[in-house]
Hints:
Layout: H1 2-26, H2 50-59, E1 88-89, E2 98-105, H3 111-120, E3 124-128, H4 130-133, H5 137-145, E4 149-152, H6 165-183, E5 189-190, H7 199-207, E6 212-214, E7 218-220, E8 225-227, E9 239-243, H8 255-268, E10 272-273
Parallel strand pairs: 1-6, 2-3, 2-9, 2-10, 3-4, 5-6, 7-9
Antiparallel strand pairs: 7-8
Amino acid sequence: xxxxxxxxxxxxxxALLVTGCTAEARTxxxxxxxxxxxxxxxxxxxxxxxxxxxAEAYRRWGLKPLADPPAPPAVKPVVRAPGxxxxxxxxxxxxEKIVFITIDDGAEKDPEFVRMMKDLKIPVTMFLTDSAIxxxxxxxxxxxxxxxxxxNHTLTHPNLRxxxxxxxxxxxxxxxxxxxKEYGTTPRLFxxxxxNWNEDTRAAAGSCGVEAIVLxxxxxxxxxxxxxxxxxxxxxxxxxxxxxxxxxxxxGRTMTETTATMLRRIQEQGFxxxxxxxxx
Length: 280
């Protein structure tokens, strides 16, 4: 009997020793939760190298990243008063060093431009003419899916000042209907072809639900911008006009090359690009 008791005591001691070691191994260090995993690999924002990824995306197009635009204003500085006339604007009232890029017509459908906009994440507003885009509505749907604005530039691109109010209304309202059908929303902004408009244009646009007629201060040419003001420089809130054009209209240059040049001119003057729809 004494021998059995001694064996039992020895086995109990061994079991206690093993249990104690296991418990000690599970005891967390002071200040560390038992459920806390090892330090994770950093993810998101600067920790994952997003600035480097952005810089690389810009380098693909021969550019440096533009500064982030300021947060949009709580109240839009351009608003159509209920029942009032449609505002006609060439710039946005602001003191921020921002400009707005608008691109007209839709004749050129360069797939590289879609890739460029995806890489750069710079907002643009597209003023589309149905006669120019009807052969490939899907091209502009890809740009709209990136968040770029869809706006109205008439059905057939006429000089509106040569048309009656009813004819102007058919051009503007007809394109409102087309764009809503293709892209899901009715445009709020309208640009008259060639920048030509009159009071019949304003009345017709208002009857079609347009909230602003958008003109411009600068237009992008092949290698430089054309300025309306005599000082030849950008001003806060300026609206820039560009076009969906290709090598046949740009003396061999592509749309991505002229867009890159435009962005360099903007950056050289200390400006960045904001989203027009956030201000009007």
